[in-house]
Write a structure and sequence with these properties.
By secondary structure, this protein is mainly alpha-helical. The chain has a single domain, classed as Alpha-lytic protease prodomain-like. The chain is 86% helix and 0% strand. The protein has six helices and no strands. The longest helix has 37 residues. The chain is elongated.
Length: 196
């Protein structure tokens, strides 16, 4: 039993933080996309989409941690899925936000959109910190990449809140500009992780 403790505890921790991410991010990601669409907020839609990317990455990680020994392919697949999804998200969001900046159009934030973004700004850094702490104990570079994605989600929530605040003060460009910043951040992280 003593032999297994050192192996199963890190795996259990990795599975726990992955499942916690899946639960939180599924609810808030879908909520952010739905509320973002209804409020015409590209920044909130981008935030929700980046959080849903985190769900896909965490699902692959759950599969990877259930097959921990001698499965290097699972580790690489988990990292590639996460990084590729970020790049795709960045391209789509970048195109949408650029079009909105050119053609105009304002977001209409509501109390629900603000509460959801604020909750993500609080919870996601906690999940990311836990992933960073657990990743070296498994060890898993893919879990570390997933922590980066979780921080991107937190950053996008913060940018969405900033965009809402500026939009309320009459800066209609703020929401698509925040969304474009989200896209650039997601692209940078995705490309770096794909190259590594």
């Amino acid at each position: 039993m003593g032999k297994d403790d050192g192996v199963t505890d890190p795996l259990r921790n990795a599975l726990t933080v992955s499942w916690a991410t899946i639960g939180w991010s599924t609810v808030t990601g879908i909520g952010a996309v739905v509320l973002g669409l209804s409020a015409a907020s590209l920044a909130l839609v981008g935030s929700g989409a980046s959080v849903l990317v985190d769900v896909s990455s965490s699902l692959v990680l759950v599969w990877r941690f259930r097959h921990p020994f001698g499965n290097e392919a699972a580790e690489h697949r988990a990292q590639a899925v996460a990084a590729s999804a970020l790049v795709v998200l960045a391209v789509l969001l970048g195109a949408s936000s650029t079009q909105r900046l050119v053609t105009g159009g304002e977001a209409h934030p509501t109390a629900a959109t603000v509460v959801l973004a604020a909750a993500s700004l609080v919870v996601l850094p906690l999940l990311a910190a836990r992933k960073y702490a657990v990743a070296p104990t498994v060890p898993s570079r893919a879990l570390r990449t997933d922590a980066h994605i979780t921080l991107v989600g937190a950053s996008t929530a913060g940018l969405a809140l900033l965009g809402f605040a500026l939009t309320e003060r009459g800066a209609g460009w703020a929401d698509p500009a925040a969304a474009l910043t989200v896209a650039l951040l997601a692209l940078a992280v995705g490309v770096l992780e794909l190259r590594s």
